[in-house]
Amino acid sequence: LSDDEYPIAHTRVAAGAVGGVDVAFAFAQRHAPTGIGRVTYVGVAPEARGRGLGRAAYARALSMLRDLQPSRYIGGTSSENRAMCALFDEVGARRTRTWSVWRRTP
Hints:
Blueprint: E1 12-18, E2 21-30, E3 36-44, H1 53-67, E4 72-73, H2 82-90
C-alpha cells in the first residue's frame, strides 16, 4: 500500500531469540501526513528481560526510523516504566508533557 492508502509505515524489529523464538521487538513508524516518527511497542518477553534486548530493539528501530526521514521524533511511556524512561534519556529525548489516564470500571 502507498502512504496515501496507509499513512503509517510499520517495521517489525526482532533483536534477539531464545530457542528460535523472537523475544524482543519494536516498531519504527512514520506518519505520512505529518512526517512525525515514533518507535512504538518496544517489548521483551519476561524470560528474556535484563539482557539488554529491549535497548537493542529500540536502537535498531531508531536506526530504521532515521531511514524513514521523519520531520521529528516523539515517544511516550508510563512514568512508572523506568526502563523505557531510561532509554528516552539515553537518546537525548526530553520530557515535554505528562498525560493522565482515567479509568472507570464498567
